[in-house]
Amino acid sequence: MISIVIPTYNEKDNIENLVNEIRKRAQAEIVIVDDNSPDGTGKIADRLSKKYKNLRVLHRTSKSGLGSAIIEGFKMARGDIIGVMDADFSHPPSLIKKISKEFDKGADIVLGSRYAKGGRIVNWPLKRKLTSRFAVLLARPLTGAKDPVTGFFFVRKGVFDDIRIESGETKSWKVSLEIIARGQYKKLVEVPYTFVNRKAGKSKISSREYKNYMSQIISLMAFKMKKKLKPNL
C-alpha cells in the first residue's frame, strides 16, 4: 500500500480537489498534516476523513515547519511505500501511477524530478529558479541525484524507518535530501515532471527555511565525513 502525506497550512482552496484527484488515480492512504490553519483547512480535512476511510488527519497546534510535518506524517503512515506531495497542485497526481511502477521494478526511492531530462519548471520567477539551482549545487557533494531537494518523492518505509529521524532533528523542509544522504538503499530513480507554480494560496517558504537548509547541508556533510572516517578509528 502507498501512503501519501500532504502537509497543509491555509490550503482550503486546494485540499479537497487534491484529495479527489489522488483518489481517482491511486488506491492510497492519505495523511493530511495540518498546522492549525486559520483558514479552516483542518476542518475540511476532518470532513473528508469522515467520508473516506483511507484518509487520516494529524492536527498540530502551531506552524512548526514543513520538514517536521513531513516526518510526523511519515511516522503516522501505514503504507509500505510513503511519499509526500504539496497541497497546491505543483506536484501532479497523474504521476503517482508511474512512480508506483518504479517500486514494482525494484526502486527504493523515487524522486519527482524537475531537473532530470524531461523535467521543467513553469511560472517561477528568476530569483526562485536561481535559488533552487543553488540548493542543488550545494547538495552535489552528498549525492549524484539531479533533484535531491525535490518536495515530491516516495520511499520504502523501511528505508525511512532505518534512519530513525525525528521531527526535531532537522528544521529544513528538504527531507528528501536527508533520506538520500543518510538512508541505506540500493536503487534511486528520478521521474521527470513539470513543476507548475501554485494556482491558489501563498507559498510557505521563508528566509528562515533557507537558513535551515544551509544548516542541514553542514550537518549532512559532517555525517558523511564521520561515516567515511569511522572504519579508520
Number of DSSP strands? 9
* Share of residues in strands: 15-25%
Give the strand line-up of the largest sheet: 3-2-1-4-7-5-8
- Helix and strand content put the structural class at alpha/beta
The major β-sheet equals:
7 strands, mixed
Q: Would you identify the regions where 5 or more consecutive residues have pLDDT less than 50? A: none
Question: Could you characterize the architecture of this molecule?
Answer:
The chain is of the alpha/beta class. The protein is built from eight helices and nine strands. The N and C termini lie far apart (42 Å). 41% of the residues are buried.
Short description:
This protein is 40% helix and 18% strand.
Descriptors:
233 residues; globular; 9 strands; 8 helices; seven-stranded mixed sheet; alpha/beta; 18% strand
Summarize the topology.
Blueprint: E1 2-8, H1 15-25, E2 28-34, H2 41-51, E3 55-59, H3 66-76, E4 81-84, H4 96-104, E5 109-113, E6 120-122, H5 126-139, E7 153-156, H6 157-163, H7 175-182, E8 188-192, E9 194-196, H8 207-229
Parallel strand pairs: 1-2, 1-4, 2-3, 5-8, 6-9
Antiparallel strand pairs: 4-7, 5-7
